[in-house]
Amino acid sequence: MSESFDPEKHHLLPLRGFEDLKIGEMFRLPSRTLGDGNFAAFQTLSLDNHPIHYDAEYCAAQGHPAPLAHGLQVLAFTAAGAGMFPHVIGPALIGFVEVSAKFLKAVYPGDTLYPALEIAALTPQRTTGLVTMRATVHNQHSALVLDGEHKYLLRLARG
């Protein structure tokens, strides 16, 4: 006897609602080593032509050992969709509603980045809840290169 398949029940992880989340809960994202291809792809996407991101001689004259990763490129590594958070909350997610970040240290080709999201605040509203997450990115030397915040709007189970 074969059981019927329901795509609505095909989840990577058991679903949890806003009410099940906990402050301090950590969602680590995959580490990545940045190569020249990452820099070229982001330049193409962003249309940023500043030589600090692609001209090694210009960078050397400014005191940098290599081109610098664009801050928005480093921020992109904190995208929740690269990790498990969206799979945990599933269809409760209404949207990604706010982001802020401080870029604390330079990121160069060859650096390996370790992004993470940590639940910092849970703000229930009438029919929705706001999840505030601290976004961090460390490099291979354990230096914090980005510190920021994401906010996600979720449906409440009882809403």
Automatic annotation (TrEMBL):
Coiled coil: none annotated. It comes from the Bacteria. Residues 23-135 form the MaoC-like domain. This is MaoC family dehydratase. It comes from Novosphingobium tardum. The lineage of its organism: Bacteria, Pseudomonadati, Pseudomonadota, Alphaproteobacteria, Sphingomonadales.
